[in-house]
């Protein structure tokens, strides 16, 4: 299966390495507007380098394209690829506006090609085990969720030409770092119906144009509530913390470890840290290889990839609603 990767920056590393582990895939082309990055990736993976995405589409016919570019380019590039009859795997967020989400939905429907959104944390062992446990129903009905993303991003992280910008990153900690946790909240707890949020730039004022702190209250289906606190102003990159409260106990996810807590407060470790291969930083989650393998298995066997344009845009909708809520001071219904 012939593959192209567009955007050869930091996050592309996980894609390149995961692809190199799949015997059926061949990286035939890479693209980046910075020639040195495209040339370096092309040399390492035996591909042809392009410095323009449209030129790649004009000259190559890959079976699939991985889109690892800055946020504001994701939807337009994905739609162009789909219109050319190419499957696409898009780094999060899939879109940065509600109009873009509609555009991506339409492109997937009309193309009948596979669309994947890279929410790799759904493949973490702790999340898979929690999903099974919730389905079993032994703790009773889910009542609420609380989640914390406490990471560190200093001035150096924003020294490139797009991180921290309103027009290219299109947001900060919510749309970049915490969107994975937003996705897990609605994946484990049910679809989000209403959002009330506050975002602020408290850590790097004058350095970035976007938020580094956010609090988001979500009303999930079935009148469940979820509360997310996210920051990039912490002193270190801690594992993501998610706790689900049920009628008869709790589940707590800390990175790849899952705990159950009974009604008396007794804690039981249910899932140790997995030995999964992590091609990136451990606190990002270890699911990139599993997601990419699943995506190509779906293409190969003509199965629908679960995190498609529709399912994968749910987290983006919540984030966009959170920005609207913070700006207006009102709750936003989805």
What does this structure look like?
With 334 residues, the chain is an alpha/beta fold. It is built from nine helices and 15 strands. It is globular. The mean pLDDT is 95.
Helices and strands in order:
Blueprint: E1 2-6, H1 12-20, E2 26-31, H2 35-45, E3 48-50, H3 53-59, E4 64-67, H4 74-83, E5 87-91, H5 98-111, E6 115-118, H6 125-136, E7 142-150, H7 179-189, E8 192-200, E9 213-220, E10 224-231, E11 241-246, E12 249-254, E13 257-262, E14 267-271, H8 288-300, H9 314-328, E15 332-333
Parallel strand pairs: 1-2, 1-4, 2-3, 4-5, 5-6, 7-10
Antiparallel strand pairs: 7-11, 8-9, 8-15, 9-10, 11-12, 12-13, 13-14
Helix pairs in contact: 1-8, 4-5, 7-9
Briefly note the CATH topology name of the largest domain.
Dihydrodipicolinate Reductase, domain 2
| Average pLDDT level | 95
CATH architecture of the largest domain: 2-Layer Sandwich
Task: Going across the biggest sheet, name each strand in turn.
Answer: 14-13-12-11-7-10-9-8-15
Regions with little confidence, pLDDT below 50 for 5+ residues = none
Give a brief description.
Helices cover about 30% and strands about 25% of the residues.
Kindly list the characteristics that best describe this protein.
Rossmann fold, nine-stranded mixed β-sheet, 334 residues, globular, alpha/beta, six-stranded parallel β-sheet, 2 domains, Dihydrodipicolinate Reductase, domain 2, 9 helices
